Amino acid sequence: MRKYILFFCLLLAFAGGFTFTVHASAANQEMPPLVRIGLIREFANRESISIPTARIQVGHEENGVFIPLQLLESAVGFVARVNAEGQVTLHAGNQLAFTFTRQCSEPQIREAGGGVIGLGTSTYRGIIALRPANRLLTAINIICPEEYLFGVIPAEMPPNWHMQALMAQAVASRSYLFSRSLEGPHAHQGFNLCDTTCCQVYRGAGHEHANTTHAVNATRGVMVFHEGRVISAVYFSSSGGATDNSENAWVEARPYLRSVNEIGEHNPFQWTRTFTWAELTTLLQAANVNIGTATGVAATQIAASGWIRELTIFGTAGQHRLTGEGINGFFSPSAGGRLASRNFHILEAMPQLPTVWVYDGRQIVSAPLSAFQGLDAHESPTAMHMAYVYDGTTTRRIHATPQQATGGAGVTFAGSGRGHGVGMSQHGAEGMARLGFTYRQILMHYYTGVEVR
Question: Which of 44, 111, 322, 327 could be disulfide-bonded to 115 (CB atoms 3.0-4.6 Å)?
């Protein structure tokens, strides 16, 4: 399959016509030869799009094949617009250079010599489709998957990080590209993925780096599989100690997205955010939640990983519960935006230690954990602040229950990590790579029960 991908890349650059596939194949679990990336970060619903490239070939899509129409040259480049009849037009300076007729199912352009093509201040490999709607244009980059990854990896991970971490990122991003294409979240818009954090960040040819390009080439075609199917290899920046289960962040529990402890996370992110009760009240109003004035906050469900599953805001006229990634999103309208992660505790809420039951062979004794004593390393009695339970398979920590934070000027969250917390921690991958782990070992640590091939 990898030879075919390379073959199609060459066709994309040099041939007069090529085919493309919008959706990946669920049956054979192989990457399509070309993918469509919506450039919505800068080029969505624009009245005009600047094309600074001097020589371009214009064409259109017909039954999945690029049909070349004309070669255009202009020292000042071109500007794409939509005319009153809904046709895409190209202008060189003040002159109309080309009009795509209504018979053109999809107007497309590429650099005449097979090189990169400019849009605004960015450059892209492959072909640019210009999709008109309501006198506005959206640009779509049609590109070989491996070359697409050239523009993804340096946007998602620092290019000067360890090569094994970069290779792990390349495989995760390739797997995510495939699985996300199957899900088809942007199918109604005519592309597989977008170029923002909604999918994964893509910055085109102008942001490529030799290190990340090597990581892509060194893992060419390699993806992560669970029970024979490519996984949705989600990833995030930093966990601060442990990743989280997928159902705690979103809805679906996926067997390969289970919580794991970090082995040696590199430079984990630490953060604090403070909100006054007035600011929380404003956020409630922005979310159309009417519980009066905010008076308190509590973490009412905490996952075994330590990440918050449910946050409750109390008001003078009721309470409002936030769950999963809705917790971070609730704070988006604030000056500092979303919370960095759900891995936090509330400083003003003193933890209430859990009640535990101990069977001594004759009777069951029940008391708060603080009432029990254990022996330290020197066999001296010491207070107990942490307890674990073994269910015959795994050992889980019993977490304290934070009380409601009330009073004072407001509430402060103190947290670790950045991102949704599910899948591969990028800072964790870097830490593992520095400790000598390979990219395959990194991926198999963060994604449970998988194959890397």
Answer: 111
- SS3 (DSSP) at 375: strand
Nearest to 268 by CA among 343, 172, 156: 343
Residue 396 is encoded by which pair of tokens?
Answer: 């889980």
Which H helix or E strand runs over 307? none
The low-confidence residues of the chain, meaning pLDDT below 70, are 1-28, 349-356, 368-371, 376-378, 382-404
Token output for 178: 């495939």
Please name every residue paired with 415 in a beta bridge, in sequence order, or none if there are none: 271, 344
Element holding 111 (H helix, E strand): strand 107-111
User: What integer pLDDT is reported at residue 388 of this predicted model?
Assistant: 66
CB 42 within 8 A of CB 138: no
Cα torsion angle, 255, 259, 261, 262, sign: positive
pLDDT value of residue 105:
81
213 in the Ramachandran plot: left (φ > 0), alpha (ψ -120 to 50) or beta? alpha
Q: How far apart are CA 97 and CA 90, in angstroms?
A: 5
Q: Return the CA Rg of the chain.
A: 27
Contacts of residue 33, defined as CB under 8 A and 6 or more positions apart, other chains included, come to 4, 5, 8, 19, 20, 21, 144, 145
**What residues contact residue 335 under an 8 Å CB cut-off, 6+ apart?**
none
Sheet containing strand 318-323, strands side by side = 318-323, 308-315, 294-302, 405-406
Residue 394's contacts (CB-CB under 8 Å, 6 or more residues apart) are: none
Q: CB neighbours (10 Å) of residue 276? A: 13
pTM of the entire structure? 0.83
Please list the residues that pair with 93 across neighbouring strands: none
Tell me which residue of 63, 183, 59 sits closest to 112, measured CA to CA: 59
